[in-house]
Amino acid sequence: MSPTELAAPPLPRTQWSGHAPEAELEHWSAIARSVSDALAVDALARDAANQDPFTEVDLLRESGLLNLLVPAEFGGAGAHWESAFATVRIIAEADGSIAQLLAYHYTNQSSIAFYGAPSAQAQWFTRSAAEGWLWGDSVNPVDPDLSLTAQGAGYRLNGLKRFSTGSSVGDVIVINAEVSGGEQDGQVLAFVLERGRKGLELLGDWDHLGQRLSASGSVKYTDVLVTPEDVLGEVTSEPIATLLTPGLQLAFGNFYLGIAEGALAAGRKILLERKNSWFLSGAPRYALDPVFQRVVGELKARTAAVGALAEKLNRRFDTEVGRAGELSAEQRWDIAVAIAELKVVATEIGLEVANRIYEVTGSSSTKNDVGLDLFWRNVRTHSLHDPVDYKKIEVGAYFLDGTTQPLSLYT
């Protein structure tokens, strides 16, 4: 697909402009650190219990993080995407599942601006802020499409969606489906349903290796009534609307990075507490052994490099979002591919750190009650969301001759 194929009538605006001042970043990072510290206390026990994270969502709500991106004029904090991505990264240091919930919440909630008509955005943002909604989703594109059939002034929704992150704890769920029949036949609509809508069944079947508290189970829809008031808008190929997917991929990069940083911090603590040393090393303690220092140094340096790239792109994303309807197809693809570069290296550093940290913490750190495995299980599970090899192809094809991949909810 060439960049010009994305051209379409622009939306007049989105809700964000400018960049986060240092005071804003410091404020939200401090709040995120407080939440992260609270989550770290019992992260392993909560993971083992594998219960829907209503308590954790309340913690996010009480901290103000759920309304971070809601414009101030509608009752929110009026902060920037750079601050949102930073909070995801910090919380992932303690709990990858809750970082995923927050990352998806930000993109799902922002569907108001990316899909909604400007005239309707105020009421959606205002209600979300006032009621403290957590936004889940049910848009997994690899599942068979849902059936959204026109009926009178509204629609009836039927079908099943797996991997519906946040659905079992979200106050509302964003859904995409193609209309059959009526005046909007063939259009793909984004709409919002409350978790308790009649005919909406939460199957509670999320029981995976990692990200166990991400509330990502399947949702079944049986003759669910969808009213015109539930509809955000049409899902189009207009550049600013399609920027939502790169935004979510950027959030992925940040929470993979946060998991790596959490694993490093946990490994450092274990290593510093280890007494004596390996008998061949000649060092008085393990932390003074050059072999162990080399491993930690390598992992720390590579994590820092990925962190610098993430911070650069987090700030750049605000620039691109601020273009709103002026965002060109070329600009959209350029930031999307840059984010794909981060996705590649963040996936690799997350997996490597969570794996190799055992080389310096030793066999005793494999005890189940230590919980070091939680980092690896979380990043291993979510990094399979979409194959990273295809992100490498995306980067390589664009670098070589400007070729872009087919537009989808993954690119």
How would you describe what is shown here?
With 411 residues, this protein is α+β, with helices and mostly antiparallel strands. The chain folds into three domains: 3-134, Acyl-CoA dehydrogenase/oxidase, N-terminal domain (Butyryl-Coa Dehydrogenase, subunit A, domain 1), CATH 1.10.540; 137-234, Butyryl-CoA Dehydrogenase, subunit A, domain 2 (Beta Barrel); 239-401, Butyryl-CoA Dehydrogenase, subunit A, domain 3 (Up-down Bundle). The chain has 14 helices and eight strands. The chain has helices spanning 22-40, 43-49, 54-63, 81-92, 96-109, 111-115, 118-131, 239-242, 244-273, 290-322, 329-356, 358-361, 373-382, 388-401; strands spanning 135-138, 147-151, 154-161, 172-180, 188-194, 200-202, 219-226, 231-234. Strands 1, 2, 3, 4, 5, 6, 7 and 8 form an eight-stranded mixed sheet that branches. Helix 4 packs parallel to helix 9 and helix 4 runs antiparallel to helix 10 (290-322). The longest helix is centred in the C-terminal third of the chain and has 33 residues, at 290-322. The N and C termini lie close together (12 Å). The model is unreliable at 1-12 (pLDDT under 50).
